[in-house]
Amino acid sequence: MKYLLFGTGDYYERYKKWFEPENIVALLDNSPLKQGTFIDGIQVLPPEKGIEKPFDIIVILSFYVKEMKQQLLQLGVLEDKICHFYGLRQRVYQKDKKKPILYYGNAKQRMVKGEKNYILLLSHDLNYGGPALALYYAAKMLIKHGYHVVVASMIDGPLRRNMLLDDIPVVVDVNLQIETMNDAKWMDHFSCIICNTINFYVFLSDRNTKIPVLWWLHDSEFFYGGVDRELIRRISQERLCVASVGPVPEKAIKKFLPNISVKRLLYGVERNIGSIEKETRAYQRKNVCFVTIGYIETRKGQDILVEAIQNLSFEERKKAEFYFVGQNTSNMAQQIIQLEIPEIKVTGTKNREEIHRLLEQADVLICPSREDPMPTVAVEAMMHRVPCILSDAVGTAEFIHDKKNGLLFESENKKELAEKIRWCINHKEELSQMGLDAEQVYYQYFSMDVFERNLLEIVTKLCPINCKE
Questions:
Q1: Radius of gyration of the chain from its Cα atoms, rounded to whole angstroms
Q2: What is the CB-side half-sphere exposure of residue 456 using CA atoms within 13 A?
Q3: What does the pLDDT average to over 248-263?
Q4: CB under 8 Å to 213, separation ≥6 — which residues?
Q5: CA-to-CA distance for 446 and 270, rounded, in angstroms?
Q6: Cα separation, 238 vs 289, whole angstroms
Q7: pLDDT digit string (tens) for 117-172?
Q8: Is it the case that residue 111 has pLDDT exceeding 80?
């Protein structure tokens, strides 16, 4: 089988291990900066050039599957020659050729058949993204209440270190990228499984129904682009509890499973506050400091924010500074940098400590996303008494009352976003009180106490403590 792999970013790095190099004809990418280069010794070509080579299948290694698939179809590629990484199981999975499983902490000792109150928490990665952090906090909560936990992930990452420091055993099993639950026999003895995100729909499509499962969804409709409708409908709802971090993921899953019952389970964020007095922060410098944090891409809407900034007058822009925090290598990030707008600073990525320090200094957080289920950074901002300007396509918007504890604008409406930014510049003295009101949203809905109560309400029904079979 000869493959063209379309996409050379994060998901290429995650899934390239399933392909023998000699079977990869070429890599495809739309970025002119990558075309003509070599990655892992394989040439990167524009799609229109790559499809001229002999191949059997093009595998899309991106969540922008709709756009990329449409591009290929317009180039004349037959639909049955296009595959998404969600469909890799049927093409590359072989039971006798599994990848090695890595165990950390005392994970192997926890693999003891017959133990009770053992909960397995499954993550698609161990990076510092919202879903993985939420699962990490959930693991700590469950340990506190007498459960034994193991965290397993498809992909390793820096969050593993935090877990091991908290005595949470970790398993890294890349086979979970393409396996079903019934393939992964090592987890058959757990009392309950909690799995995060739509990434586990293939895993759940053939499950051991003797084990109760909490499927905790954090995903907007965007992440369902490569989902096989027939496969997701095979998921047994026996001993299955589906929970969502808000209305956006619930709406997305119900487009595929309209009759499924979905509970609400908001995540919790650990309080991390420095010593800066927020009540005086806005008066300590001349300019209002706006920050936006997230991968710089179309879905996150930083281009809308740039246009809104350009709608401000010269005098208004002189009173503000805008920090764009996120990968500065994306096409959109490079385009923003090339505009050379003096008020905009593209910083690149930041670690968790740096993000908290930045929020301590910020006056306003902006989430201009075209869709965003429940961004952790918005909750962290409110925890730091930083009011947010949110698109109404952001799940967190349901907790915001305009000009009371934050500001709202219609998604993609650059003029309305400019008005909200302008209001902040002209009402600088009101931002501190707005930040205090925003902090109450954190306490009421996203504090660890609230999360603990809501999580245990669900888990104890699936797996009562000291349960007996």
A1: 23
A2: 15
A3: 96
A4: 192, 193, 194, 195, 204, 207, 239, 240, 241, 462
A5: 9
A6: 50
A7: 899 999 999 998 889 999 999 999 999 999 999 999 999 999 999 999 999 999 99
A8: no
Report the alpha-carbon distance of residue 24 to residue 424 in Å, rounded. 52
What is the Cα–Cα distance from 404 to 344, expressed in whole angstroms? 27
Q: How many residues does the chain have?
A: 469
Is the model more confident about 88 or about 276? Answer: 88
Q: How confident is the model at residue 469 (pLDDT cuts 50, 70, 90)?
A: very low
Question: Which letter, b or e, does each residue of 12-50 get, where b requires 16 or more Cβ atoms within 10 Å of its Cβ?
Answer: bebbbebbeeeebbbbbbbeeebbeeeeeebbbbebeeb
Q: Mind giving me the DSSP string for 179-203? A: --TTT-GGGTT-SEEEEESGGGHHH
Amino acid at 52: E
The token pair at 401 is 């009352």
Place of tokens 């058949």: 113
In the structure encoding, which two tokens stand for residue 279, read together? 């009540």
CB distance 331 to 306 below 8 Å: no
Residue entry with tokens 């990329």: 68
Q: How high is the pLDDT of residue 73?
A: 98
What pLDDT sits at residue 279? 47
Residue 30 has pLDDT above 90, yes or no: yes
User: Residue 366: CA atoms inside 13 Å, Cβ hemisphere, count?
Assistant: 31
- Supply the pTM of this predicted model: 0.90
The closest of 33, 30, 43 to 4, measured between CA atoms, is 43
**Separation of alpha carbons 248 and 266, rounded Å:** 12
Measured CA to CA, the distance from residue 176 to residue 395 in angstroms comes to 29
User: What pLDDT is stored for residue 194 in this prediction?
Assistant: 98
417: which 2 tokens? 């976003």
Answer yes or no: are the C-beta atoms of 243 and 458 closer than 8 Å: yes
